Amino acid sequence: MIFQLIREQGYTGGSTMVRMYVQPKRALRPSKQTVRFETQPGFQLQHDWGEIETVVAGERCKVNFAVNTLGYSRRFHAWAAPSQDAEHTYEALVQAFRYFGGVPRTVLVDNQKAAVVKHDRDHRVIFNAGFLQLANHYGFAPKTCPRSVHAPRARPSAWWAT
Fold first, then answer.
1. What whole-number distance in Å separates Cα of residue 30 and Cα of residue 44?
2. CA-CA distance, 39 to 107, in Å (whole number)?
3. DSSP percent split of the chain into helix, strand, coil, nearest 5
4. Average pLDDT for residues 58-87, to the nearest whole number?
5. Between 86-100 and 129-138, two packed helices, what is the crossing angle to 10 degrees?
6. Looking at the 3D structure of the chain, how many domains does it have?
7. Is residue 94 part of a domain?
8. What is the pLDDT of residues 53-70, one digit of tens each?
């Protein structure tokens, strides 16, 4: 973009010189700050799935992993699974409750099918029956990440990688 702009203003040099000039200055740009959502201790756990491709026993494969992060301390629990289905989502949460030694008041999920069936016309969340049973059994309130009315269904996010 910078190269195009200066070219329009008469620059006749190559793009390599522009890159060499701009590259050290990129580090001087202010970074985008992440706004963290803080909670009280024991209030919220955020559940999300991620996946990576790696080599296991000499063969390339996809590994799914659930990451459960406490909202107050940012302590997290990661658990690998063969798929991101409902059964493994619920197991990942149970494993996290055991690891943390308790259950938070709310569990925040990313609109995944294992937890959320749909959002109705009034923007209310229709939770998966199995997820509601898990919530009732363990005593947490299910909650979803805010979602724009016009936004497509989210793919697994990368909040864990930031």
1. 31
2. 12
3. 30, 30, 45
4. 90
5. 20
6. 1
7. yes
8. 888 899 998 989 999 999
